[in-house]
C-alpha cells in the first residue's frame, strides 16, 4: 500500500486542492464541513498522501441515524488522479475508520461521470448501488451564463422568456438579502412548499445561510407581487458556480418565481461566475417523480444535464441488511 491517511488541519491546503480538482464538489468544501459541525454532526477531514504529496481528500460525515450508523463521503473523495489503485487503497484505509465509529457501511457519492467504466470499477471494488433515490444533485441541470443577457434570454424556452418579461411588466420586485432575520420569511414559504410537494425539509438551512453569508457566498432572494411574498431562493456561490440550493413558493397567477431565478442569474453574472447550477432534476423515465414540475421549470431557462454516478455503498457489517432493506422499501413505495 502506497497511500496513507492523515487529518488535514489547514483550510487553505484543503480549499486549494478542492478548487483545483473538483470546484463543483460543494459538499467537500471546508465551509460545508463547518455547516455540518455547527449542526452537530461529526466531520472528518482526511488527506490521502503518497510520499509527501497530497493526492486526494475526503471529507467524511459520520451519520448516526435510527436505521444505523454509516460514513458518508458526499461529492467525494476528490482525486488528483483517480486511478483504480488509489480507489482500492482508499476503501481499505477507511474501513478501520468506519469500524472505529461503529459504522455498518460506507456510502460514497463522488461527482464522477456515470459511465460504464466507472460503474464497472465500483462493482469490482465491492461497492454496490445504494438502494436510495437520486440525491445530492447527481443528476443536475446547469446553464453557461458567460453570454450576454440577450443571448441567455434567446436560449430559453419561449414560455419561460415570456413569463420573465410578464413578471417584470407586472411589477414583480426581488429583494436580495444576507440578513438572518429575513430567513423566517423564507421558512414560511418553505414549510408550505414541503407540505404541498410532500418532501422532508432540510434541517440545517439556518447554519448553512449564516456561514455562507459570512463569507459572502450566499444570498437570499425574495420575490414579491406588490407587497405579497410569493417566492424565495437561497443561492450559494462556490468555486465557479452559483447553486440554486433551496427554493420555495406559493401558488400565484403572477410568475414571480421566474423573475427570482432571472435576478439570481444576473447576480451570478455580476460576480463573474460562469455557471448557474439549477441543481437536482428528475430522470426523464420517472413521470411520477415529485420533481417533475420543478424540472420542467428549471429546463425552461436553457442549459444541459450532467449525470454523475449514483451513490454506492460498501457494507462493513452484516447489519447493513437492515438500513439497505428499509431504504429499498422506501424507494419502491415512492416509485422513483
Task: Based on the model shown, name its key terms.
336 residues, alpha+beta, Aminopeptidase, eight-stranded mixed sheet, seven-stranded mixed sheet
CATH architecture of the largest domain: 3-Layer(aba) Sandwich
Kindly state the percentage of residues in helix.
Answer: 25-40%
CATH class assignment of the largest domain: Alpha Beta
Tell me the number of strands: 15
Query: What kind of oligomer do you see?
Result: single chain
What report would you give on this structure?
This protein is α+β, with helices and mostly antiparallel strands and 336 residues long. The chain folds into two domains: 159 residues, Aminopeptidase, CATH 3.40.630.30; 169 residues, Gcn5-related N-acetyltransferase (GNAT) (Aminopeptidase, 3-Layer(aba) Sandwich), CATH 3.40.630.30. It has eleven helices and 15 strands. Strand 2 and strand 3 form a beta hairpin. Helix 2 packs across helix 8 and helix 6 crosses helix 9. It is globular and about 65 Å long.
